[in-house]
Amino acid sequence: MVQLDGVARRIIAAIKEQIHSGAYRPGDRLPSTRVFAAEWGASRTTVTAAYGQLIAEGYLIVRPGARAIVAPGLEAASVEMSAPSDLPRNLSAFARRLLALPAPLEPQPARIADFRYGELAGSDFPVLAWRRASNKAILQRSVRLRYGDPQGASHLRGALQGYLWRARGISCAPDQIVIVNGSQQGLDLCARLLLDPGDRFVIENPGYPMARHAFVAAGGVALPLAVDSDGLRTDLLQPARMAYVTPSHQFPLGGVLSASRRRSLLAWAAGTGAYIVEDDYDGEYRHDIAPIPPLQVLGPDSVIYVGTLSKTLSPTLRLGYLVVPVGLRQVFSEAKRLTDRHAPMLEQEALADLLSSGAYERHVRTIRRKNAERREILLQALTDHFGPKVTVVGADTGLHVVAWMDGIDAEHELAIIGAARAAGVGLYPVSPLYDPTEPRPETAGFIIGYAGLDAEALRRGATVLAAVLAEHQFGSAQVHGDR
Ligand SMILES: Cc1ncc(COP(=O)(O)O)c(C=O)c1O
User: Which one, 18, 216, 263, 425, has the greatest CB density within 10 A?
Assistant: First the structure.
């Protein structure tokens, strides 16, 4: 086979482009390889190789002793392929719904502190423990490299069963566990398996956009319900096919679903036949309150429990798990198989080892302590700089808080973010987490993630933020204190 160099590939692309645009039409003769080579400053060998490739692909034909001509029949293709449009054609309804979703906020580098939520500090990753577990996994060489169980490695599911019982009080069989590539894949599988286009789903407002988007892309119609400090307002429930909730730590405002609302939600599910998708994304982090048992414990037949390793190990691993009701096991397993066969085995085996050796739980204790310290520092810095001018919510649990800038109108959010960015601080508004069809809050609010930052960055970030607000005098708020 002739190896094509970069110049040959560019020549091929240029000739194809000329054919597609109609500049060369079927039957037109191309320049001889000698002339072409001279025009391009390329060697004749390169041009001959490029022509040869175009002949092989059917773009050109040659007769002995004559120059290459454009093959017949490319006319129709040229008209079709030259249609000037940025929009891809013949997309599915799914693709069209996907393209209609709002674009995600792109991360931008921040010199001093990036309060972007969802990121962990690289230094918190348990490098040694993970390396040990990965080494063990890689050395377990099997005779054949074969596809694994779509639900996940049996070791891992066994180890997770024990962990879920110890850490979250969940009693399930390993067979009910499906290992997924992060919660996001779990949500996508729920969307595909539980919703038909036009079906309504309940979602918290404000809520997790990546869940909303997965369900909307599947054709679901959002039924956004307000939340308060007790989580989802279950008094507002209406018939729907599915409900997505974050009962242990409402995302983003942090309410914990009260016992009576848990009962109402489960009764609603039993009455309507709907499934509840319980996203327990940061269940490991309880700072001021006792661990709250998941909804799954109360309603194992109605609840699909979603867990992730993104908040304790790393969001880059793409490892998460579902605990599904017994009756849904098979369909989730088959859907996972069709999606990608199964999650990568080496990572699964390494995680299984981490869990069964006790290293994972030791790591969780360490990272919980570190994040509790970060939270303390952030809360103190916010108090020092803003005092009563800021209302912080959702700080009892999790890895982020929401700070409402009392007295500052929401219309200033973008300007504050821009000014903070210019001063080296990444700041993210709460407003995009509200359903686009519902009213947005009137006060400026920010979601502040702290798990990726060290003490110095947290303090300096808060200082800069205070200075930005003071300097620009957004709204009527006065910012006081400085350290
Ligand atoms: C509400 C919620 N669920 C789940 C996740 C984790 O997603 P994944 O497991 O796909 O990384 C996040 C991450 O930020 C989140 O905020």
Answer: 425
Range of the domain at 409: 113-120+364-472
Q: Does one domain contain both 286 and 210?
A: yes
| 182 alpha carbon – ligand 1 mean position (Å) | 8
Question: Which residue has its alpha carbon closest to ligand 1 atom 4?
Answer: 281
Distance between CA 185 and CA 256 in Å, rounded?
Answer: 25
Distance CA 396, CA 290 (A): 10
Atom of ligand 1 nearest to the CA of 185: 10
**What's the gap in Å between 281 CA and the centre of ligand 1?**
6
Cα-Cα-Cα-Cα dihedral of 360, 361, 363, 365, to 10°? 170
Residue 479 lies in a domain: no
**In ligand 1, which atom is closest to the CA atom of 246?**
1
Average pLDDT of each block of 10 consecutive residues along the chain (483 residues)?
76 84 86 80 85 88 86 66 62 93 81 95 97 95 91 97 95 98 98 98 98 97 96 98 96 95 98 97 81 92 98 98 98 98 97 97 96 96 94 92 94 93 95 91 96 97 94 60 36
Q: Is the pTM of this model over 0.70?
A: yes
Do both 369 and 458 map to the same domain? yes
Q: Separation of 211 CA from ligand 1 center, angstroms?
A: 9
